[in-house]
Amino acid sequence: MNYEDHLEKARADFAAFLKNVSPDARCVAFHDSDADGLCAGVIWQRALERLDYKNVQRLIPDRERNAWTPNNRAKIEAAKPQALWVLDLGSKSEKVIADVPTCFVDHHHPEGCPPGDTLISAYNWEPIPNTSLMIYELTKPLVDVEDLNWIAAIGTLSDLGEKAPFEIIGEAKKQYKAKWLKEATTLVNASRRASTYEPETAAQALLNHTSPQALVESDSPEVARLKAAREEVKSALEEGKKAAPQFAGNVALIRVHSPCQIHPLIAQIWRTRLPKFIVIAANDAYMPGRVNFSARSAPGINVLQFLRAIELPEGEGNYGHGHDQASGGSLPLEAWNELLRKLGFN
């Protein structure tokens, strides 16, 4: 199918799921904490409110960013959802919450869908849209969300960059100016990258402003916190850039020690410098007792397949999810050291 055919089917699947949800039902979206996930959640909230759904709630995962961990499942169960949307957090054949109909909207490598649930995956579309752009396009035929185009553009810029092959980037730049979109994107992302991990602050900033310029120039408490987070992340990133890579086979390993989530940024920086290598940036100070890492590769090198081919003993932690060229994980120290040994590092 071409892009438009994929989108038409996805819109039909989304509308069919929504049709089975009563306007009085408790509707919960569990969405990622990065800019794409936050923008997807905010657009979903506004769309359902405008469709007169009376009980709409967003939830954001902890730093593990996984809907299936005990802590995050408990958070969802506490909201007592009667219908659940999981946005930008992948999909699995395992139910998130038993007996709750669930709609997954995602663009990562799909790992299944529970029987009876709905999976709307853009993984095989060409080109592949990000999740907030998907939610924007899925809800557009159902209700007026045109005024939220700048929010979808922020999610797209964050995930896919300025050269993303989607019209919304050019349209939003023309309507709102590239300067404000770029600055707002940086602020929204800073909330989950800072040591305080306050992604809901960024969500509130998106909900409470009408344009990227209004957000950036706001003197609201939430935007003040975003600006403080941005400065902390900027300082941490400058320190992280000083780390030099170690090599084993076709893997380049960069170690950083920061309470801020700078490892994805470090991995992306070194990926462009070392295009023939799989780059792994590992951070042993982001979560106590764990190593969080980001893996990046150039097109033509599938980092997902590479990581999944490495078998580790069962236990806490996870790795090898995401995109073909962008993956990573979060492992306890013992499992991380085992991974290093299997990669050829001391």
Report what the structure shows.
By secondary structure, the chain is an alpha/beta fold. It contains 13 helices and 11 strands. It has a 6-stranded mixed β-sheet, with helices on both faces. A hairpin with a 2-residue loop joins strand 6 and strand 7. Helix 6 (167-176) packs across helix 7 (178-193) and helix 7 crosses helix 10. The N and C termini lie far apart (47 Å). The mean pLDDT is 96.
Largest sheet entry: 6 strands, mixed
User: How large, in whole angstroms, is the Cα Rg?
Assistant: 20 Å
Principal-axis shape = globular
Fraction of residues in β-strands: 15-25%
Task: Name the strands of the widest sheet in spatial order.
Answer: 6-7-8-9-11-10
Which structural class do you get from the secondary structure elements?
alpha/beta
Order of helices and strands: HEHEHEEEHHHHHHHEEHEEHEEH
Distance between the termini: 47 Å
- Percent helix, as a range, is 40-55%
Mean pLDDT metric: 96
Q: Enumerate how many helices there are, as a single number.
A: 13
In total, the number of strands is: 11
Provide the low-confidence segments as ranges: none
